[in-house]
Amino acid sequence: MKQLTLSKPFTLTGKGLHTGAMVEATVMPAPEGHGYKFQRTDLEGEPVIDALAENVVSTQRGTVIARGEISVSTIEHLMAALYASGVDNALIRVNAPEVPILDGSSKLWIEAINATGLTEQKAEKDFYVVKHKIELADEATGNLDTRTSFEILVLFQKLHAEGRTIIFVTHNPEIAQYSSRNIRLRDGHITEDTVNTKILSAAEALAALPKNEED
Known about the structure:
Blueprint: E1 2-6, E2 10-15, E3 22-29, E4 36-40, E5 48-50, E6 56-58, E7 64-67, E8 70-73, H1 76-84, E9 90-94, H2 107-116, E10 118-124, H3 146-161, H4 173-176, E11 181-186, E12 189-195, H5 202-208
Parallel strand pairs: 4-9
Antiparallel strand pairs: 1-10, 2-3, 3-9, 4-5, 6-7, 7-8, 11-12
């Protein structure tokens, strides 16, 4: 299955939900392997932010991505429309710190994408396929021992440093200190969403653990 991009650019204009200002967003075709990127045309140098999970800094009243001090908010409806339409690569140019809210859904974005059409590219789509169940646990207790836990955290941090998005669920707040972003859930609702600016090193923690007797 080949990657897809837009056949031509399109522009939608509307109010920003948080600023109330009129915002213009132009969604443009992009080359293979580009993914989704947002460009702030209102700022000097027109900086670009990759729409990646690790760049999400807030999900309060909208999804916000950032690179340093530069951010773009309320991207979720456009992102949903691009993904649902099968678009793999797009550059979104906005002249404000947020995407226009339009009617508060993805409807107008979907309609604009359909009217514009898609172009097939030469590169294949990149899929992550889980071919079989993967489970790591102690059969007796259902828990991992401390050393194994940190060995896995070392692997997770290595993969994250290579640009992979890693999501894991834990009830242990100490383990959360090794992730870049922590989302706390209670009764099915997000009660806290914070960026961890002081990520601990799993490799250092592993090295500090006492050796197992069988080692």
